[in-house]
């Protein structure tokens, strides 16, 4: 069993009770083509979210770290793709017995598919053998793979500007090859959490909170950017270096989310599935709209003026919130789910600063807090069992937090996980890549220059030595 | 591409630079300073007479050097391009800048 909505099964039971004659639907090969097509198209929409995360993060960091954050996003996508090919998919979906799937290496088309692909002329038996699976096996692999990349992207934003490239990639390999697949196996792979009735349609908890927990563990062990939290209790403002880029990133993510949630219907080969997808699209959109407006108003009330970065994160948190149950038929509830997500995210950003956790892009409030809320909202508005939802949130939270903390700690004790203070000062682009993201622009901040001038003045004062110009 | 030559005069270490202080050149300069300089003891003079170009990366490396070298850190023989960048960014007030090596050594070796 893969992802399945409670509402979908509920409607099926309702149809049986009413006792109308079953409608046969379109022929199985056409259905196979539509379902496979859906996996591939929605999959590449989700793949495009990697671009959204990259733009969001590249615009959020200071310019001296822009190149490295682009590299990390590209690298993590590549690592996620290979790890999920080698181990992840099999651990998550193949022969899952409660806790974990199979430890076999690699994936590929089924025997029936290979036979069909290599046949000089296909026989009806060959086609039937392939079609009976419901969809092309590699289309499912692709669709599942792009989700693990999303989990990994969440981590890079939170830890930006100070986590070393190589330990970061090592963590991503463990996250995408082991931690995420185990979490996925518990529910989407048909494991113990799905047997308890835990419901997470497209992954508020499984994808987004998992990324959020992994990021939180890293952020705690890594510590804040140098100078972010001052001794006097004030916080160094680190405004986004490029607001249009962050906005573009948010719109790309919003677009990709139609694939993320819509595609998680997993089928397009019937009128019912197509109708569900349409409902999911609209709910997804409504929740994001609610998140934006709620964050706008909350930021205005909390800070006296609108804070665009909070509003942009409001869109993301609205989207994350609706991800556990985008199948709501009372669509006004989708707005409410997004609104509450937007408020929680904005308050969460504030709380993180209070606890001196430096999350560069606000990924932890937007993905972890909104993810938890969305999973609870699936019980409040979507009919999921609240006990099962809470069990899932706690079990997955505890597992991901413990394993992530362990991996980050091992890396910290062996290779070290953060760049030196002087390297952080110079910027990771220069130190780790020997390049600048915008070589033709003056990218020193007013603060950098003033601090340099102050330093000279204090040196002059301490030596009271005349300058010879 | 940046070329660097090390020298020493009256107890002041001198790095003579030629080429471009862009991303690649700047990090090479940073690494070279790291290798050659004892931040607690040495004084360093950068002879910039052959520096054709300096980017923000180059400025960051110079600012960091000024902050981390406890003793004297000076710059001399600035080309007009570098002078212009310093003037535009107001960084001319952030460094000890000398007209030539002689003036620099006289001041720094005191």
Describe the structure.
The complex is a heterodimer of chains A (about 475) and B (about 110). By secondary structure, chain A is mostly helical. Chain A has a single domain (about 30-435), classed as Ammonium transporter AmtB like domains (Ammonium transporter fold), CATH 1.10.3430. Helix content of chain A is about 70%, strand content about 0%. Chain A contains 18 helices and no strands. The radius of gyration of chain A is 24 Å and the shape is globular. The model of chain A is unreliable at about 5-10 (pLDDT under 50). Chain B is an alpha/beta fold and about 110 residues long. Chain B has a single domain (about 1-105), classed as 2-Layer Sandwich (Transcription Regulator spoIIAA), CATH 3.30.750. Chain B has 4 helices and 5 strands, in the order ββαβαβαβα. The longest helix of chain B has 14 residues, at about 25-35. The radius of gyration of chain B is 12 Å and the shape is globular. The relative contact order of chain B is 0.19.
**Largest protein-protein interface:** A-B, 29 and 34 residues
Mean pLDDT of chain B: 92
Tally of separate domains of chain B: 1
Largest sheet of chain B: 5 strands, mixed
User: Approximately how much helix is present in the residues of chain B?
Assistant: 40-55%
Compute the CA-based radius of gyration of chain A. Answer: 24 Å
Derived structural class of chain B:
alpha/beta
Identify low-pLDDT runs of chain B.
none
List keywords for this structure.
heterodimer, A: 469 residues, mainly alpha, Ammonium transporter fold, 18 helices, 70% helix, B: 110 residues, alpha/beta, Transcription Regulator spoIIAA, 5-stranded mixed beta sheet, 4 helices, 41% helix, 34% strand, globular
Layout of strands and helices, then pairs:
The complex is a heterodimer of chains A (469) and B (110).
Chain A: H1 6-18, H2 28-60, H3 66-93, H4 111-118, H5 124-131, H6 137-158, H7 165-187, H8 192-195, H9 204-222, H10 243-262, H11 271-303, H12 308-322, H13 332-354, H14 363-380, H15 386-414, H16 421-426, H17 428-433, H18 446-463
Chain B: E1 2-9, E2 12-21, H1 23-36, E3 43-54, H2 56-68, E4 73-76, H3 80-89, E5 96-98, H4 101-108
Parallel strand pairs in B: 2-3, 3-4, 4-5
Antiparallel strand pairs in B: 1-2
Helix pairs in contact in B: 1-2
